[in-house]
Amino acid sequence: MRYVAWNEKTTTPVFPSDEKNIVPKAALAESISQKVMDTALRVGTGSDANFAATRGMKKVPSARSLAEQLFDSRAIFKQTASPYSMHLPDGWRGRLFAQIDSMLDSDEWDADDRLIARESYVTFFKLITLRGIHIRPAIANSGTGNIIATWRDGNSSLVIECKPHSIARWILSIEGGEKNAGEAPVALLLDRLSGYKPERWFDVG
Q1: Is the CB of residue 129 less than 8 Å from the CB of residue 88?
Q2: How far is the C-alpha of 12 from the C-alpha of 204, rounded, in Å?
Q3: How far is Cα of residue 146 from the mean position of the Cα atoms in its chain?
Q4: Is the sign of the CA dihedral 124, 98, 77, 147 positive or negative?
């Protein structure tokens, strides 16, 4: 799994060529709920292999090479971005494309992971274009067909799995030990997080 990190409070990327930003699955498990830990996680990235959205999902056909399938997935991400591009902050589009290119690199991809579904990409773009989100997330794949967005502020983290049908599963860990998780339509997410001061993750200031 390739985990693509970015500077928390600026638009400066931390390039994946830096080995310390390539995070193994074992390290991903620490800030996620027990259910989600089973697939792959770090700073709260992860997914539950039994989530309803992934049940019955078949593995991609093997007739085409992994590199070809990942190329198509990168293209789908960029096509999905098109109607949302005008709502993204300046510079985000190109940097998001760089993130997805790195994450979907055939040299880094775990062949046992499912390719990310188009519907998950749609949820992701609905999420990051919510009013009030001004910091670009780090991204990872859940291993079960969904893209994961992660924000960190010091020792506090917010992890959101972008499920199909505009559903966001969130898991947060706040410095001091408080943890919580939930699931909500993307349109209601900020309201659901309002008691946890989400501006700590989403505001540049």
Answers
A1: yes
A2: 12
A3: 8
A4: negative
H helix runs in the chain, sequence order: 34-37, 66-81, 92-103, 118-128, 189-193, 199-202
Cα gap 97→175, rounded to integer Å: 31
Q: Which of 53, 54, 56, 24 is nearest to 40 (CA)?
A: 24
Please give the single-letter amino acid code of residue 86.
Answer: M
Amino acid at 154: G
Q: How many CB atoms lie within 10 A of CB 6?
A: 24
b/e for 152-164, b at 16 or more Cβ within 10 A? Answer: bbeebbbbbbbbb
Structure tokens at 190: 């900020």
Q: Give the separation between CA 201 and CA 171, rounded to whole angstroms.
A: 13
Average pLDDT over the chain reads 78
* Residue whose structure tokens are 């992701």: 124
Q: Looking up tokens 């390739």, which residue turns up?
A: 2
State whether residue 169 is helix, strand or coil: strand
Residues shown for the chain: 205
pTM of the model: 0.70
| pLDDT tens-digit series, residues 164-192 | 999 999 999 998 889 999 999 999 999 99
Q: Quick check: 172 and 44 in contact, CB under 8 A?
A: yes
pLDDT at 176: 80
**DSSP bridge partners of 179:** 173
Is residue 168 a contact partner of residue 184, using CB atoms and an 8 Å limit?
A: yes
